[in-house]
Amino acid sequence: MPHSETKDADIPIISISHPTLEVAQQVLSAASTHGFLFICNDGSILPTSSINKMFDLSARVFSQPTIQKATHAIHTPEAGGLNCGWVRMSGESLDPSHPGDPKEAFNIAPPTSSSPLQPLPSPLSSSATEICDFLGSCHDLCTRILTLLGAALRIPEEEGGESWFADRHDESKGPSGTIFRMLYYPATTAQRGEGEQRIRAGAHSDYGSITLLFRLPGQPGLEILKPDGTWAPVPVNPPSPTSNSSSDDDAKEMGSPPILVNIGDLLCFWTNGMLKSTVHRVTFSGGEERYSMAYFCHPLDGARLEAVPGAVIQAYGDKGREEVGRQRERLGLGGGAGSEVLTAKEHLDRRLKVTYGLKD
Ligand SMILES: O=C(O)CCC(=O)C(=O)O
Ligand SMILES: [Fe+2]
User: Fold this and answer.
1) Using 50, 70 and 90 to split pLDDT, how confident is the model at 168?
2) Is there an atom of ligand 1 within 6 Å of 292 CB?
3) Among the atoms of ligand 1, which is closest to the Cα of residue 296?
4) Domain 13-188+195-235+251-356 part of CATH 3.10.350.10
5) What angle do CA 144, 352, 165 make, to 5 degrees?
6) For labeling, which of 140, 237, 298, 316 is most exposed (least CB within 10 Å)?
7) Is 169 in the pocket of ligand 1 (CB under 6 A)?
8) For the chain, what are the domain ranges?
9) Distance from the CA of 249 to the center of ligand 1, in angstroms?
10) Predicted TM-score of the model (pTM)
């Protein structure tokens, strides 16, 4: 199929406003086939106005002079410590074989009962309440999706039932690696087709449980790796199931784009590879500037990465063990699927070290 690499990824759009078992099964099916799904956003989940407000703040923070952004440089005490604060241009590599992603980022950790909100620079500081509310809504949505996955996996009641995942993401119970990122990919003068295709965010899978991804109409670039080894673009506004008009052109008529959800490494480990932590990347597309935002939902630090109990994963059996083995190899975790059980924090620390090139 000569054009397969330019055909949009066929990611299902699911409404979860009436969370029945059938909806849960749709979510599980998308998560175990594509590793990506779209959730309809009718505005009750995350109002468009709140999403736009965050994009506004993001544009304003990245337009500050470098010297000002550097006052909250990533990992510094001034920014709130490890994985909090501003990442300079080319300051990280999501694919270490392509060093230095041409992007900036600003990381914000949700406050918890034991740790207050990190210090924020202007203009974020004056919108701290709205930022915290937004992060809270993102977490609520993640909890709803995790509960649907728990239901579809038929985790026995005595083991925690449908709340098995959600309980392990209960922010009131302790610290986690959850992080919200504003991302900015500055305009580039490189032309499409010139030499090696420019990569804005190297090929990677996400480190946490699930990621909510927010993008803007007219700012493409995200691609997922398909099982046949080709890359498929992920539209910002996918055609709705009832229309066959396509994507970003109709952004205005369609209102709020659906929210893109991405399965991360931990759900892959937890389900013996049944749920797919799909590799993705951002290419430079037309070279225009691009903003995106990601809510990386992580479990509590001490959560153990071992198979979830229940009939579905048991029936899935060893089918995914090779896949988990390959993932562990790819992530530099060594060994096969049966190797040591890591905690969520151990896994995250290893991935952050590689991404930022941190020393012990
Ligand atoms: O900018 C995007 O669309 C995706 C970024 C991404 O995949 C990531 O930061 O993990
Ligand atoms: Fe990602």
Assistant:
1) very high
2) yes
3) 10
4) no
5) 20
6) 140
7) no
8) 13-188+195-235+251-356
9) 22
10) 0.91
Structure tokens at 226: 């398909």
Angle at Cα 220 formed by Cα 294 and Cα 267, nearest 5°?
Answer: 40
> Which ligand is closest in space to the CA of residue 183?
1
SS3 labels along the chain: CCCHHHCCCCCCEECCCCCCHHHHHHHHHHHHHCCEEEECCCCCCCCHHHHHHHHHHHHHHHCCCHHHHHHHECCCHHHCCCCCEEECCCCCCCCCCCCCCCCEEEEECCCCCCCCCCCCCCCCHHHHHHHHHHHHHHHHHHHHHHHHHHHHCCCCHHHCHHHHHHHCCCHHHCCECCEEEEEEECCCCCCCCCCCCCEEEEEECCCCCEEEEEECCCCCCEEEECCCCCEEECCCCCCCCCCCCCCHHHHHHHCCCCEEEEECHHHHHHCCCCCCCCCEEEECCCCCCEEEEEEEECCECCCECCCCCCHHHHHHHHHHHHHHHHHHHHCCCCCCCCCCCCEHHHHHHHHHHHHHCCCC
Distance CA 107, CA 80 (A): 10
Closest by Cα among 95, 96, 125, 89 to 108: 125
190 pLDDT exceeds 80? no
- pLDDT at 253 > cutoff 50: no
